[in-house]
Design goal:
The complex is a heterodimer of chains A (about 350) and B (about 250). By secondary structure, chain A is α/β, with parallel strands linked by helices. Chain A is about 40% helix and about 20% strand. In chain A, α11 (about 310-320) links the parallel β14 (about 300-305) and β15 (about 325-330). Chain B is an alpha/beta fold and about 250 residues long. Chain B contains nine helices and seven strands, in the order αββαβααβααβαβααβ. Chain B has a seven-stranded mixed sheet, sandwiched between helices. In chain B, β5 (about 170-175), α7 (about 180-200) and β6 form a beta-alpha-beta unit. In chain B, α1 (about 25-35) crosses α7 and α3 (about 95-100) crosses α4. The longest helix of chain B has 19 residues, at about 180-200. Classes of the chains: A alpha/beta (about 350), B alpha/beta (about 250). The interface of A and B includes residues 26, 64 and 65 of A.
C-alpha cells in the first residue's frame, strides 16, 4: 500500500481495474456508473489499452467475450437495465469458461426504474445471471477501499476458476468519495493455454464454444463446471462479522446498506441490545455455513436490503427454520436510515425477549 | 508423382453436416484457401455464427470461437482489439448478420473495424427448418410465409451490401455467388481481397456470398443453382458496392 487518494467509488473502481492489468474496457453509457467509462476513456489511450463505446450493452458484453477468449483481462460496466441486456453474453461467458469482470452499479428498478441506489438485482446476480445452469462470482463491496481491493481479486479468481465475476455495487458506493490506497502488487495474469492466439502452425486449433448437441456430453460438461463451483463455495467465501461474538440478535446486510446497519448496531449496543452484523462480501458463494453456525447462538435474524427482500431468502435457507428471520427493506432508490433500522432492532429485541 | 492439387490445410478432415447440394462447403473452402495462400492460417481466429454454420469451428483449421446469435461482429471486435496482430474473420448467415445482428454488423462497419466478414445469403433460415429470412425474396414461399412473402405485410428484403456501402468505415463490400465455376472464381478473388485488406489495415471488408439451400427451398441441387442465377441474382445483383481498398477508410 502506498499513497492515499480521495476518489469517487466509480473512478477508484476503474483505476483499480487498470492497476490489476485490465487494458480492455467495453461499455455503453448508463447512470449511475458513467464515471467508470469516462475514466477508462481518459486513461486507456495513454496506456495503449482499449476503451470502446459499443452500440449497446449487448455488443459491449460480446466484445468482452471476444477479448476474453483472446486471453486478455477484459471488463464491462453497467447498471441494472443494462445488465439485463448483458445477460445473454454472461450466460455464454459462463458456458464458454471465460474469465471477465462485469460491474453492476445497481439502480432502482424494475423496468427503466430510477437512477437512485438499489440492491434489487441480488437475485439476478446470484440466481440467474443468464439462462441455464450457471453461476458467476459475485462480490459486494461496502466502501471505496473495498471496491479497489475486490476488483483485482475478482479478476484473479475469474481466471483461476475460469468463470465470469461480477462486482455488485450500488449508486451510493459509485458516487461517494473516500480516501483509498491502491495495492502495489497486482496478481499476474495466469497462463491461458486455451486462449485464441492463432495456432502459429504449432498446435491444434483452440475452440471456445458453448454448443453441445449431445445431451449426455452437455450434462457432463455442466457437471464438471459444477465441481469447480463446489470448490469456489468451499474456498472463496468472504464475509465480515461485526460484534457477532456475544450477539443475541444478528443483522445480515451487504454493500452500502451494511454501513448504515453498522451505525444502527452501534446505537443499539449503546442502548444495551446485544446485536451484531454479518456482512457477506461474496454473495455467490454465499456464507451459508457461517450463517448456519451463527444460528446456534443468535435468537433471531434481521436482514436489511435496498429491495423488497431478496438476500433474505438465502439467509432463511441457511438458518433453515431454526430461528426467526425478519426483513426490513426500502426499494425504488430509497435508502434506509440508521434510525429506521434502529427501530427495527428494538422491535425485534422486544419481540424475541 | 507430382501433386498438382490437394485439399487446403485450412480445413480439417471432419465430415461436414451440411445438406447435399448446399454451397456452404464451397464457401468454407474459398475462405480456407485464402487464409492458406496468404500464409496467415496460423494467425487466423474465426468467429462462428448461430445458424447452419454454427459448427464451422469443427471445419476451419484455425482458432475459433462460437458467438451468440448475431453478435459475431462484436465478438470479433473484442478479439481484434485485444490481438490486432491476428487475422480475425466472421462467417455469418443472413438471419445472424442481417436480422438479429444488424446493429452489431452496422456498427462494426461504422467503426471501420479491421475485420473480414463472410456473409452467406441463402434467403432462408436453414438450421431451424426454412423460415423467412431478412433476405427472403418477395413472393418466396417459406415455412413462415406459406403464401409467399407479401411485402405489404412482411416488409422488404434487406440489401446488405447496398446498405453498408453508404458507411464511411467500409473498405470493401462485394456481392458474389458460388452457383457456377466462373462465379466461384470471382468469389475466391473477392474473399482473398477481403483478407488482404485486413492484412494491410484497410478497414471493414465484407463479402456477401449468394448461397443455396436446396433442402429448405424444396429443390434439387441443380434447380437450386439455377434459382440463384435466375431469381436471386436479379434481386441481388453481383458486383462491387464499395471499394476503398487503395487508401483504406482512415
Amino acid at each position: 500500500m502506498g499513497k492515499k487518494y480521495l476518489m469517487k467509488g466509480n473512478e477508484a473502481l476503474a483505476e483499480a481495474a487498470i492497476r490489476a492489468g485490465c487494458r480492455h474496457f467495453f461499455g455503453y453509457p448508463i447512470t449511475p456508473q458513467t464515471e467508470v467509462a469516462a475514466y477508462m476513456a481518459k486513461q486507456m489511450p495513454k496506456l495503449g489499452g482499449t476503451y470502446l463505446q459499443a452500440e449497446s450493452e449487448v455488443a459491449a458484453i460480446n466484445m468482452v467475450l471476444g477479448a476474453a477468449s483472446a486471453g486478455v483481462r477484459a471488463m464491462t460496466s453497467s447498471s441494472s437495465p443494462g445488465i439485463s441486456l448483458k445477460q445473454e453474453g454472461i450466460s455464454y461467458l459462463a458456458a464458454s469458461d471465460l474469465p471477465a469482470l462485469i460491474v453492476n452499479v445497481m439502480r432502482g428498478s424494475p423496468g427503466l426504474g430510477g437512477i437512485q441506489p438499489s440492491q434489487a438485482d441480488y437475485w439476478q446476480a446470484t440466481k440467474a445471471p443468464g439462462h441455464g445452469d450457471a453461476q458467476i462470482l459475485v462480490f459486494a463491496p461496502s466502501s471505496v477501499q473495498e471496491i479497489v481491493n475486490l476488483v483485482g481479486h475478482a479478476f484473479h479468481l475469474a481466471e483461476v476458476y475460469r468463470m465470469p465475476a461480477m462486482l455488485l455495487a450500488d449508486g451510493l458506493l459509485g458516487q461517494m468519495m473516500e480516501p483509498v490506497e491502491f495495492p502495489e502488487e497486482t496478481p499476474a495474469p495466469s497462463e491461458k493455454p486455451w486462449a485464441l492466439t492463432g495456432t502459429g502452425g504449432k498446435r491444434p486449433p483452440n475452440i471456445v464454444n458453448s454448443l453441445y448437441l449431445t445431451p449426455s456430453q452437455l450434462e457432463e460438461i455442466v457437471r464438471q463446471r459444477f465441481l469447480r463451483y463446489q470448490q469456489v463455495q468451499e474456498k472463496e467465501v468472504m464475509l465480515e462479522q461485526y460484534h457477532t461474538d456475544d450477539a443475541r440478535y444478528l443483522m445480515v446486510a451487504y454493500g452500502a446498506t451494511a454501513r448504515i446497519v453498522k451505525s444502527a448496531v452501534d446505537k443499539a449496543r449503546a442502548e444495551g441490545i446485544l446485536v451484531g452484523l454479518i456482512r457477506p462480501i461474496t454473495l455467490w458463494p454465499f456464507p451459508t455455513a457461517e450463517i448456519a453456525a451463527a444460528a446456534e447462538q443468535a435468537k433471531a435474524f434481521l436482514c436489511v436490503e435496498m429491495s423488497m427482500g431478496q438476500m433474505v431468502e438465502d439467509v432463511r435457507l441457511a438458518v433453515n427454520g431454526r430461528r426467526p428471520v425478519e426483513f426490513y427493506g426500502r426499494t425504488g432508490g430509497m435508502v434506509p436510515t440508521p434510525a429506521e433500522i434502529l427501530n427495527e432492532i428494538r422491535r425485534m429485541a422486544r419481540k424475541e425477549g | 508423382m507430382a501433386v498438382i492439387f490437394q485439399k487446403t490445410k485450412g480445413l480439417t478432415d471432419r465430415d461436414t453436416h451440411y445438406c447435399p447440394g448446399c454451397t456452404h462447403g464451397i464457401i468454407h473452402r474459398l475462405v480456407a484457401e485464402s487464409l492458406e495462400e496468404l500464409g496467415v492460417l496460423g494467425d487466423a481466429i474465426g468467429v462462428c455464427p448461430v445458424g447452419c454454420a454454427v459448427m464451422a469451428y469443427d471445419y476451419f483449421n484455425c482458432d475459433m470461437v462460437e458467438a451468440p446469435h448475431g453478435r459475431a461482429p462484436a465478438v470479433a471486435t473484442g478479439i481484434k482489439r485485444a490481438r490486432p496482430q491476428n487475422v480475425v474473420f466472421t462467417y455469418q448467415g443472413d438471419g445472424d448478420l442481417a436480422a438479429i445482428g444488424t446493429a452489431e454488423t452496422v456498427h462494426a462497419a461504422a467503426r471501420g473495424e479491421n475485420l473480414t466478414v463472410i456473409f452467406v445469403n441463402n434467403a432462408i433460415y436453414g438450421m431451424t427448418g426454412g423460415q423467412m429470412a431478412p433476405t427472403s425474396l418477395p413472393g418466396q414461399v417459406t415455412q413462415t410465409t406459406p403464401y409467399g412473402r407479401d411485402v405489404a405485410y412482411a416488409g422488404f428484403p434487406l440489401k446488405v451490401c447496398e446498405m453498408l456501402a453508404t458507411i464511411d468505415g467500409v473498405a470493401y463490400a462485394q456481392r458474389v455467388a458460388v452457383n457456377t465455376a466462373p462465379h466461384i472464381r470471382e468469389a475466391k478473388k473477392a474473399i482473398k481481397k477481403a483478407f488482404q485488406n485486413q492484412l494491410e489495415g484497410k478497414g471493414f471488408s465484407i463479402v456477401e456470398v449468394l448461397s443455396t439451400c436446396p433442402t429448405n427451398w424444396g429443390m434439387t441441387p441443380v434447380e437450386a443453382l439455377d434459382w440463384v442465377e435466375n431469381t436471386m441474382i436479379p434481386y441481388y445483383p453481383l458486383g462491387c458496392y464499395q471499394d476503398r481498398s487503395e487508401k483504406g477508410v482512415r
